[in-house]
Amino acid sequence: MQDSKLSNTSDAIWPGFVRRNAGKLRLVLIDDHPVVREGIGALLSLESDLAVVGDAGDIETGIELVRRYEPNLVICDLTMPGCTGGLAVRKLCCECPTARVLVLTAHDSLECIRESFTAGAIAYVRKDALRVDLLAAVRRAAVGEQAICRGVCDILIRDWLHPVRTQPVVEVPLEPEDRKIIRLIALGVPTWKIAADLGRGVKAVEKYRTGLMRRLDLGSTAAVARFAVRCNLLSRQEMDGLVSAD
Asked: Is 54 helix (H, G, I), strand (E, B) or coil?
């Protein structure tokens, strides 16, 4: 017979440790790409201690699922339709203040990382992270521990050891199409809609958008929005409208 004293021992063998027989951690996925939701959901469902109880392609539906299921953790993309930068995370944390949010995103700039944690996220993982890193972060965040993947850790360490000096602002000439695309990005218009408006292919616009943001050294949609305001491509009223919509 097992000693009752041993059977009552705490599960916290080390921070973030979860026993396989301790009951499943309930998760909700929010990402506007169906393939990403299906892939991440399938990966997490292979784990005996994890259960995906719902998924959504927009933040409003995601909030409804969080209220309905009260999951241990919400895994949410940083940029959602109609929500630029960390606005999706902020909206989720405001509407569901007890929710624990793990940001799973392709963005890895320092600005995006700061915005996410400031908005209320408890963890931040890049979409190119190793499976073991994602699972470790999910389990830590689901029990209330802050977590980041190794790629984000490397970025933070480099910034700490070698902080980038502020460079003087350099005026960059913008073509009419540059200005239009910057404005649409700042307003949170998705790439497929920008492509439709311009009458161009989605892949071509995605490549153009990535190159434009790299050329202007803009690491996130929020940075694009601030740049658009400085260049008078977006009014303060429009910017305030984006924030109040949050």
From this structure: strand
How many angstroms separate the CA atoms of 144 and 99, rounded? 10
78-101 pLDDT, tens digit each: 877 777 667 888 889 999 999 999
In the block, residue with structure tokens 């408890």: 122
What lies within 8 Å, CB to CB, of 81 at 6+ separation is 32, 58, 59, 188, 190
Sign of CA dihedral 168, 105, 243, 241: positive
Lowest pLDDT segment from 17-21, 34-38, 41-45: 17-21
Residue 143 near residue 14 (C-beta atoms within 8 A):
no
Q: Do residues 152 and 126 make contact, with C-beta atoms less than 8 angstroms apart? A: yes
Residue 166 lies in a domain: no
How many independent structural domains does the chain possess?
2
Domain boundary among 160, 188, 204: 160
pLDDT at res. 11: 46
Domain span holding position 220: 176-245
pLDDT of residue 66: 96
Q: Which residues contact 128 (CB under 8 A, 6 or more apart)?
A: 106, 151
Indicate whether 155 and 61 sit together in one domain.
Answer: yes
Partner residues linked to 73 by β-bridges:
27
